[in-house]
Specification:
Jelly Rolls, single chain, Tachylectin-2, Chain A, 0% helix, ten-stranded antiparallel sheet, 32 strands, 2 domains, mainly beta
Length: 481
């Protein structure tokens, strides 16, 4: 495969996923499109590769795939950690910072008391420099458990909406404001769905519905209590009338059934009204221990969202943004019409770049069948007994185990596409309704097939090399330098 290998000193550095050059990263923040750029802010420690000194890092992209790291945007101070939040483009100058100013609404966590309040910062230079509002905080309920504001303009009412987590209460509070400074409580949503862990990182947005009309979607991150243990993201589909969010089904659904998908958020203001999402590709259960250096933390691929109906319910569907296809490079390896029993090696040594792997199986008499990556570091397959697409990790630096979700056979076949990078895999099946995101750290790059308890048929397998999306990794200087 003819594309650039990973640096030998950084064997797990992703090639098509965003990572900072150095140090710790977690939640995506401030996702907004403005003046021809997609902005990705994120929780960042400028001083080291463990959680601490929480600040906002910043990267920009023309297409949600190729990212340029700009450095630290809003730094921590002696008084406050800069926790998660959002950015809006104040087109009408409602906050008094000027027309089309970028305004960050973030949680200021007091380093002395732990009290979490909501604060503003503004930028007039495309997010390169930021000025904290002298009147901060703009929302203070005296809580140590009140964070991650997602703010958007509600056009029907002509005001701003904030969705914010009351974490240990498993509630999402909704507020309104005319100027981003004075906020009035509207309603609470929750508890609902998964409630074993704290609720964080809410997002609320409208999506068109397949077949006509639209619905509102509420994202809520939950930790612990995710579908594979530890961290996870659930969603609810329903209606929002400017005051109250009402779900169609209060049981909710998981956006991703893998173990390494958390704090997902969506971009505001995207061209053509597309709704695109990105998540932190990690799990709080082992995020601090993954064997990477000098960076720790990566984002998922950017995903475009839609709503589909099936089985009398409305489902969120996710697909990698179209620009990912532009990374295809060179001729693919293709296989097909193979009977699979036991373990069947295919490619004993893979180059260290990223791959797009598209597979189609007929389960046949096998109890389960699928792909084996990294000499068994992870298996991606279909379990005919449970009707689930699954990922199963072996022992290693991240928690071993199996997890998955229901996937539909079509014409007696299971189909999925997996994006395999240096230390991760993202699997999409059932038209994007079933998604699995996992980290894994193979000692050797290899690809094979496996069938257990019978014989399965591999209908087709296409292994497509992908060129790197990131620029050569360097340590950025101060923000804007």
């Amino acid at each position: 495969m003819s594309h650039r290998s990973l640096p030998r000193r950084e064997p797990y550095r992703p090639q098509i996923h965003y990572t900072p050059a150095r140090n710790w990263m977690n939640d995506p923040n401030g996702l907004v499109w403005h003046d021809g750029e997609y902005h990705l802010f994120y929780q960042y420690n400028p001083e080291g590769d463990q959680w601490g000194n929480m600040s906002w890092g910043h990267a920009v992209s023309p297409d949600l795939v190729h990212w340029e790291e700009l450095g630290t945007a809003i730094p921590a101070t002696e008084d406050e950690h800069v926790f998660s939040g959002s950015v809006v483009i104040d087109e009408h100058g409602t906050a008094g910072f000027g027309r089309s100013a970028a305004v960050a609404v973030y949680t200021a966590s007091c380093q002395r008391t732990g009290v979490q309040t909501q604060a503003l910062a503004s930028s007039a230079d495309r997010g390169r420099t930021w000025t904290r509002y002298r009147g901060n905080p703009v929302l203070d309920i005296g809580s140590k458990d009140f964070r991650d504001p997602k703010v958007f303009w509600y056009a029907e009412g002509g005001y701003w909406i904030m969705a914010i987590a009351r974490c240990s209460e498993r509630r999402i509070a909704l507020y309104r404001s005319a100027d981003l400074k004075a906020w009035t409580w509207l309603s609470d949503f929750g508890p609902a769905g998964a409630t074993l862990g704290e609720w964080e990182m809410p997002d609320l947005f409208r999506l068109p519905l397949e077949g006509g009309g639209s619905r509102w979607v509420m994202l809520v991150s939950v930790n612990p209590g995710g579908p594979a243990g530890g961290s996870g993201v659930q969603y609810f589909v329903g209606d929002f009338d400017g005051v109250t969010f009402t779900p169609e089904d209060a049981s909710g659904s998981w956006a991703d059934v893998g173990r390494d998908f958390y704090a997902a958020a969506t971009w505001e203001g995207t061209p053509e009204g597309r709704r695109c999402l990105i998540g932190w590709m990690a799990n709080w259960g082992d995020a601090a221990a993954i064997p990477t250096h000098p960076w720790r933390g990566a984002m998922t691929l950017s995903r475009e969202l839609s709503l589909v109906t099936a089985g009398g319910r409305t489902w969120l569907a996710q697909r990698p943004v179209a620009a990912v296809r532009d990374l295809r490079a060179g001729e693919p390896f293709t296989f097909g019409d193979l009977e699979v029993r036991g373990d069947v090696p295919l490619l004993g040594h893979l180059d260290e770049g990223a791959l797009e792997v598209t597979a189609e199986f007929e389960p046949g008499t096998a109890e389960r069948a699928g792909l084996v990556l990294g000499d068994g570091a992870i298996v991606i397959g279909y379990d005919a007994r449970t009707g689930e697409l699954f990922a199963e990790r072996g022992p290693g630096p991240v928690t071993a185990g199996r997890h998955g979700g229901t996937a539909v056979l079509r014409d007696g076949r299971i189909r999925f596409t997996a994006y395999v990078d240096a230390c991760s895999v993202e699997v999409f099946s059932d038209d994007g309704r079933t998604v699995i995101t996992d980290l894994f750290f193979p000692e050797r790059r290899a690809l094979g097939l496996s069938a257990v308890g019978g014989t399965a048929s591999l209908v087709s397998l296409v292994v497509q090399p992908l060129r790197p999306a990131r620029r050569d990794v360097r340590s950025p200087g101060p923000h804007g330098a």
